[in-house]
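User: My instructor asked us to take a sequence, write out its structure as tokens, and then describe one feature of it. I'm not sure where to start. Here is the sequence I was given:
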Amino acid sequence: APPNIATPQYMAEYAKELSKKYGLRCTVFDEKQIEKMKMGCFIGVAQGSANKPRMVVLEYYGTDKKQKPIAIVGKGVTFDSGGLNLKPYPFILNMKDDKAGAVAAMHVIEACAKLKLPINLVVVTPLCENMPSSNSFRPDDVLKAYNGMTVEIKNTDAEGRLILADALSYAAEFKPRVIIDIATLTGASLIALGYIGTPFLCTDEKLSEKIKDASKKSLEKVWEFPLWQEYEESIKSDVADLKHISEEGDAGVIIGATFLKNFVNDIPWAHIDIGTTVWSKVDKGVLVKGATGVTVRLMMEMLREWK
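Assistant: Let's start with the prediction itself. The structure tokens for your sequence are:
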């Protein structure tokens, strides 16, 4: 849906409809609640827009509630102008796609409920716009994340990892067995794998193997990138706990994940960067022309056989 229609509130209403249809538990946090929760990174990104942020939490219980859930976090920037670091033409086009991680996550939990899978699943989707205004967050700002870490801002167009940081920390409070985030995080994914494959990074070998196995069955191509410790040096800050980007511009896919790793509380975690496989100009394999729905098939193949 176009960005003037699919606002954060629209997406929240859509989630409520899903919850009624499939018997999901749905919680929607508005901007005042998000501020009260001290999600400083999320609010920082959202504060420049007249369309206020929402955070949607959907819960599906297909087995004993004592069983730890699986958590999926989906990036939901309903339009990304880049903020004060404004995207130039033509890169600002199709930025309605920046909510694709959230949309995928919602459809995964919908499919799980339809199929009555014997798992417990929690989906967390931070929803906002990234817009330039006199209220926007700025380069050199320092934001305080939900988990208490401080983050130095170097480019307002690297906003997705900021809203994910707070959402990942929130998802970790469910004490899930794993956390998987789905995000149109980087343009660097184009340089890494082109339009054909989706990069992912993972802290757990078993989870990594599950994703690779699901890739073969779903025909959605993925490739694992390393989380080498040396990259942590690139996001050290002199004025905060972390920077959200490397100012050298190197290893964009890996740096994004290296930042996010600070917010998952040592829970087994995978980051899936759908930055370029989210949209296709032509039909190619299972990815159709237009919005591809990438990761929905992948996640469902994995969750159907979850043990």
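For the description part of your assignment, you could build on this observation: The first strand starts at residue 25 and ends at 29. Try explaining in your own words what that tells you about the chain.
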